[in-house]
């Protein structure tokens, strides 16, 4: 091998060592073996070599070409390997690190109570029904035996909405969930067993009243449903919901335009400690009664053939009693600290007191 070839080999090897990435490496490769590369040029010049040296020079050039091609290829493999190592190092994860805490939402106490109510009444064969928040005067009042100028209207502090036209009765934000009873009876022939839970509205605001609150309503219609069924159903519900097998329950004669007879229901508690159960005092908790024959007739059901019971209660009220909460207002404040305290895990099953 002549000096110029030694030099070319040394220079190429040095350039390859210096080539730190594939681009630099490729520049070296093209500079030596490319169309106008140094070695290619030497091979082209072979013709001008004196005849007696040509064989030897040709053999030396070809050996060098093989040698450099192998060196170039080896460098490429090394660079690729190094690149892979660097990537693996950069993408390394420590699988032993504890996971970051994922923010988990909590179920609002009102939602949780409604889930529990649906579960308890569902087990008794009640289906869940729904209705709109904006109701016609007829669905909210008229069909329920509360005609215009009926004194019961004054109790409801109704939000009236603009009427559809002159002379039309203004729609209302439903003041109770009872219009869902009306809609259920109109939609589906008896027998019928439904509960409904949802928002209700009354123009009233203090520590225990909110202009928007939630009610649970129930309705059972059959050929021979009696007051006994009403009592059994509500006693079972209340004892199950509050988780107190011996919870005293009292039915007290009352008045609602849409039920006859009507009864308010009280549960036992201790007025001094606020504890529910056999404390010797009574706390009013819900309204109920046998559906008024006029209401059945208004909803297309023959009161000579069918009868049934209905009940309604405030969702926030029973939630506050169950969990010992004093103030209604934080329910709607969206204060995350309150929700963390009173909210429940979406993964925990609704608290049911089976066998109570
Ligand atoms: N709708 C009544 C209220 O809001 C509750 C109720 C429902 C009473 C069904 C009796 C029967 O006060």
Describe the protein in words.
With 356 residues, the chain is of the alpha+beta class. It folds into two domains: 3-90; 109-333, Bira Bifunctional Protein, Domain 2 (BirA Bifunctional Protein, domain 2). It contains twelve helices and nine strands. A hairpin with a 2-residue loop joins strand 6 (249-256) and strand 7. It is rod-shaped and about 130 Å long. The termini are far apart. The model has no long low-confidence stretch (mean pLDDT 91). The site of phenylalanine has 11 residues, from strand 8 and strand 9.
- As laid out across the biggest beta sheet, the strand order is 1-4-5-9-8-7-6
Average pLDDT figure? 91
Share of helix among residues?
40-55%
CATH architecture of the largest domain: 2-Layer Sandwich
% residues in beta strands:
15-25%
Number of domains: 2
The radius of gyration over CA amounts to 43 Å
Helix-and-strand structural type: alpha+beta
Distance between the termini: 102 Å
Provide the succession of SSEs. HHHHHEEHHEHEEHEEEHEHH
Helix/strand layout:
Blueprint: H1 3-18, H2 22-33, H3 38-45, H4 51-90, H5 109-123, E1 127-128, E2 134-135, H6 137-140, H7 152-155, E3 172-173, H8 178-187, E4 192-201, E5 212-222, H9 227-242, E6 249-256, E7 259-269, E8 281-291, H10 293-298, E9 307-314, H11 315-323, H12 336-342
Helix pairs in contact: 1-2, 1-4, 2-4, 5-11
Bound molecules: phenylalanine (PHE).
Residues 176, 178, 217, 256, 259, 287-289, 310-312 line the site of phenylalanine.
């Amino acid at each position: 091998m002549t000096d110029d070839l030694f030099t070319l080999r040394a220079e190429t090897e040095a350039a390859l060592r210096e080539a730190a990435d594939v681009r630099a490496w490729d520049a070296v490769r093209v500079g030596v073996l490319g169309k106008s590369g140094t070695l290619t040029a030497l091979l082209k010049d072979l013709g001008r070599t004196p005849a007696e040296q040509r064989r030897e020079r040709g053999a030396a050039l070809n050996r060098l070409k093989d040698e450099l091609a192998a060196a170039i290829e080896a460098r490429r493999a090394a660079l690729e390997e190094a690149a892979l190592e660097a990537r693996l190092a950069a993408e390394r994860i420590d699988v032993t690190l504890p996971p970051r805490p994922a923010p988990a939402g909590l179920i609002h106490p009102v939602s949780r109570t409604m889930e529990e109510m649906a579960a308890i009444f569902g087990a008794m064969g009640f289906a869940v029904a729904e209705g709109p928040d904006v109701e016609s005067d007829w669905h909210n009042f008229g069909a329920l035996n509360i005609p215009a100028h009926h004194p019961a209207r004054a109790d409801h502090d109704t939000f009236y909405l603009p009427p559809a036209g002159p002379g039309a009765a203004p729609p209302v934000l439903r003041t109770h969930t009872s219009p869902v009873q009306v809609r259920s009876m109109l939609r589906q022939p008896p027998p019928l067993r439904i509960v409904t839970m949802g928002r209700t509205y009354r123009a009233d605001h203090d520590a225990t009243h909110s202009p928007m609150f939630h009610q649970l309503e129930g309705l059972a219609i059959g050929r021979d449903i009696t007051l006994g069924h009403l009592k059994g159903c509500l006693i079972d519900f209340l004892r199950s919901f509050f988780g107190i097998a011996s919870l005293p329950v009292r039915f007290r004669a009352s008045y609602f335009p849409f039920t006859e007879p009507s009864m308010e229901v009280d549960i036992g508690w201790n007025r001094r400690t606020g504890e529910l159960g056999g404390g010797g005092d009574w706390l009013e908790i819900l309204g109920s009664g046998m559906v008024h024959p006029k209401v059945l007739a208004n909803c297309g059901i023959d009161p000579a053939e069918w009868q049934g019971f209905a009940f309604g209660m405030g969702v926030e009220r029973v939630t506050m009693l169950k969990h010992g909460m004093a103030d209604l207002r934080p329910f709607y404040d969206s204060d995350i600290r309150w929700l963390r305290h009173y909210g429940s895990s979406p993964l925990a099953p609704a608290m049911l007191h089976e066998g109570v």
